[in-house]
Design brief:
The complex is a heterodimer. Chain A folds into 2 domains: 71 residues, Arc Repressor Mutant, subunit A (Orthogonal Bundle); 34 residues. Chain A is 67% helix and 11% strand. Chain A is built from 5 helices and 2 strands, in the order ααααββα. Chain A is elongated, with a radius of gyration of 20 Å. The termini of chain A are far apart. Helix content of chain B is 25%, strand content 33%. The longest helix of chain B has 16 residues. Chain B starts with 9 loop residues before the first strand and ends in a 15-residue tail after the last helix. The chains are: A mainly alpha, B alpha+beta. The interface between A and B is medium-sized, with 27 and 30 residues.
């Protein structure tokens, strides 16, 4: 819900790796993710919790298992808030310049 | 070792500062959807989910399985805007709106039963639903849509 949590969650290479793993194959159990990481079960669990608090991972129960899903929406919101703002200005200036030059021809 | 995964399901979540009624309206009425859902005019009744592109083409037309305003909506999904995807098996979309503390609602979108629809799954994953939900949040919270076309892959403006 808040940008601080997302930035904090993304500021760790292990957590970014976990997100990449879910990007490759979504909806995985802790045991399955753990097999892909050189880390203890407890370590993976701890990182998943931070990702879940930031809203980057959403969990769903499926029978007796808890599946972890990548939720990229908070990253998109950071993009909207921080990237669009800075790319739009120069891009529109160039578009205006192009229009002005082409009108002169 | 268990290797259980569920690639036939995608889950997306976003917190929106608005009432459940407002979010429900934004999901089910075309006046809102054209401004954030890839330009699609979507109308949802208790029976039917209908989506039309800007040129009037049918982008979606399927049954509604659950209609419980302003909390829960479940409908069939078929990507009719692309011939390859349209020929795949239908999948299912569930919208859940849960009020939170502090005027926020948690909106969860679960797109499942995608096992027999790999092209559709690839198309809606990542930028697909992500763009729709971030656009929905921005529109409902600010009254102004995001910039950019946000058209789904395979659709030209």
């Amino acid at each position: 819900m808040d940008d601080d949590h997302v930035f904090k969650a993304l500021a760790d290479p292990t957590r970014r790796l976990l997100l990449d793993r879910l990007f490759e194959r979504d909806g995985r159990t802790l045991t399955d993710l753990e097999s892909d990481m050189e880390m203890t079960r407890f370590g993976v669990m701890k990182h998943l919790r931070v990702l879940e608090e930031a809203g980057l991972v959403v969990t769903r129960r499926s029978g007796r298992e808890k599946l972890h899903f990548l939720n990229p929406v908070p990253i998109r919101l950071i993009h909207d808030r921080w990237i669009d703002k800075y790319t739009e200005g120069p891009a529109s200036l160039l578009a205006n310049l192009k229009n002005a030059l082409e009108e002169d021809e | 070792m268990t290797t259980t995964t569920d690639p036939a399901t995608q889950v997306y979540q976003v917190f929106i500062k608005a009432s459940p009624e407002k979010i429900w309206e934004a999901i089910t009425t075309s006046g809102f959807t054209v401004r954030y859902f890839h330009g699609a005019a979507i109308e949802v009744s208790p029976e039917r989910y209908l989506s039309h592109g800007p040129d009037g083409a049918t982008w979606g037309d399927g049954p509604v399985f659950e209609y419980d305003p302003p909390r829960r909506l479940v409908h069939e999904w078929r990507s009719l805007y692309d011939a390859d995807m349209a020929s795949e098996q239908p999948s299912r979309v569930t919208w859940e709106i849960e009020p939170q503390d502090g005027e926020y609602c948690k909106l969860t979108v679960t797109h499942d039963q995608l096992g027999a629809a790999p092209k559709t799954a690839a198309s809606v994953s990542g930028p697909g639903w992500m763009f729709v939900l971030s656009g929905l949040k921005t529109l409902v919270e600010t009254g102004t849509p995001l910039t950019g076309t946000g058209l789904p892959a395979g659709v030209s403006s």
